[in-house]
Amino acid sequence: TVTFGLGSKEFEIVSKAHLEKLSIANNCSDRVDFLEVKEEPEPRLFSQHRPEGFDFVLLEPPPLAPTYGKVDEGMRKYTAWVGAATSALKPGGYLLFTCRSRTMQSVRILRCVNMAIWSLGRQAQVVHRSVAPPSDFPVHMALPDSNHMRTIVLRVN
After folding, report:
1. CA–CA gap between residue 93 and residue 154 (Å, rounded)
2. Tens of pLDDT along 37-52?
3. What is the C-alpha separation between 129 and 116, in angstroms, rounded?
4. 124 has a pLDDT exceeding 70
5. Which pTM does this prediction carry?
6. Which of 122, 87, 81 is nearest to 100 (CA)?
7. Is the pLDDT assigned to residue 147 strictly greater than 50?
8. CA–CA distance, 43 with 105 (Å, rounded to integer)
9. 89 in Cβ contact with 54 (< 8 Å)
10. How many whole angstroms separate alpha carbon 152 and alpha carbon 157?
């Protein structure tokens, strides 16, 4: 498992320790890797980190298109993120991608995913797609727009 993320050092340390405990307790993984990315990711960074690739990659970047004026920039960044995550996968691996930008409709997200996978010369199959957050997703009562979450699970060849 690999987690790409942006965030505070405290969060990363707690998350890393928590995931390592879970993986040991459940005998589900012999290795958990965290890669911190400050800007747009370079695909080579992830494939060089673990050349044999990963079976599963969870990609949950922050909202990269927070306003309608930044949709084009957000689409470019999402494409780069998905490309980097895809390059880290073994053939037959799974990519779980979550987008929380309220300005990114499903069609735009799928366009980003398609461009990223096509640019790497790989193919993928959509295993699951959801345009609504799960029932336990936190929504701020004063900000009803905060319930935007789109999820895509891909099997990448």
Report:
1. 8
2. 656 666 566 666 566 7
3. 17
4. yes
5. 0.71
6. 81
7. yes
8. 25
9. yes
10. 16
How confident is the prediction for the chain on average, in pLDDT?
A: 76
Q: Is the dihedral of CA 103, 110, 76, 72 positive or negative?
A: negative
Displacement of CA 101 from its chain's centroid (Å): 13
Question: Which value, to the nearest 10 degrees, does the dihedral of the CA atoms of residues 151, 60, 62, 140 take?
Answer: 60
- In single-letter form, the type of residue at position 29 comes to S
Tokens 């960074």 identify what position? 45
The percent helix, strand, coil of the chain (3-state, each to 5) is 40, 25, 35
Give the C-alpha separation, 99 to 46, whole Å: 20
Query: What digits encode the pLDDT tens for the residues 15-30?
Result: 666 767 777 776 665 5
Q: Distance between CA atoms of 101 and 26, rounded to whole angstroms?
A: 33
Scan for tokens 């927070």, then name that residue. Answer: 66
Which residues are bridge partners to 54 per DSSP? 89
Chain centroid to Cα 36, Å, comes to 13
- Measured in residues, the chain has a length of 157
